[in-house]
Design a protein that fits this description.
Elements lengths: L3 E8 L3 E8 L2 E8 L2 E4 L10 E6 L2 E6 L16 H18 L6 E8 L1 H4 L2 H11 L6 E5 L2 E5 L5 E4 L9 H4 L3 E7 L4 E7 L2 E2 L5 E3 L3 H16 L5 H10 L2 E3 L2 E3 H24 L8 E5 L2 H4 L1 H7 L4 E2 L6 H13 L2
Parallel strand pairs: 1-7, 7-10, 11-17, 17-18
Antiparallel strand pairs: 1-2, 2-3, 4-6, 5-6, 5-8, 8-9, 11-12, 12-13, 12-14, 15-16
Pfam family, one: ALP_N
Protein name: PRTRC system protein D
InterPro entries: ALP_N, ATPase_NBD
Amino acid sequence: MKEQILIAVDCGKANSKGLAKWKGRTYTTTFPTRMQQVKRFGVEIQPNSYLVEYKGDEFLLGEMVSESYSDFNLTKNSLIHKVAIYTAITNLLLKANAPSYVDIRLAINVPISAYKDKIQKENFKSMIENENRTIHLIVNGKAFSIDLSDVTIAFEGMGEVYAKPEKYRKGYTTVIDVGGLNCTYCQFKGVQPMVNTMISSDLGVKILLGKIGKAINERYGLSVSSDDLEHVLRSGYFASKGEIFEDSKVFIEELKYDHLQQIVQFAKSRGYTFNMSEIHFVGGGSITLRRYIKQLFPHAVIIDNPLYSNCLSFLKILEVKYA
């Protein structure tokens, strides 16, 4: 029997995250889900960036790519997600120093709406498996040939429920996954997702960035780029020509609070009461909104290292499936 490596990839609109388990050790990777097609690219590749040759085309992924090359489509059935997932796999294979003949057991996620649709789920699975054909690509000058079959499809918004089933088996848990473009909600009875609660909204962090950009334009008459807005959100203020606009510190925080209120109101409009349930926030957006999550939900849990919480559940599913 061939050796197996377990790989879980959560390819989001903001970041691609991956975990691999090989010979008792766990390996991680994360990079921005931004991709730009290039030709005869000669610039030295910087850390957390990848030059990928796939099907005769060249693509640059990761930190070196502008935020304007992010994918703003709701679907993940796209070239950018396909190449990002393959890149995450090759990066994990390298980190684990796994042999080329190893069996790759892969779990990936789709938006919760696609997960509930049998046809959409099968189409995405077929795309990632490359219709059972060997996948050939070159990443940062190193050639890979990988085969993917029996790919496990998971859904966004699992959090760590399946990673720690003994912790969640007896109670109710509401998981709110604040991603790049979407915000996903799911309530679990023990470890069973309640289908009627599996919903999503377009209230991810990139939508918040758009609100901040609009406010800057209206207040100061200045236009800002997607990359500017990333810096604004990280810094907590807006500056132009070296001048920090002090009042921007206030309205940026107000917009964050308002955005979280919208996330909560959307859930309530779809039947969520937040009663008799633990509230867990996951995803990179929960880091951005942490301050106000703690104000609205003082007893909510913001999962440690929320970027990888979904991947930890995917990995556990693989461990059980291929035990």
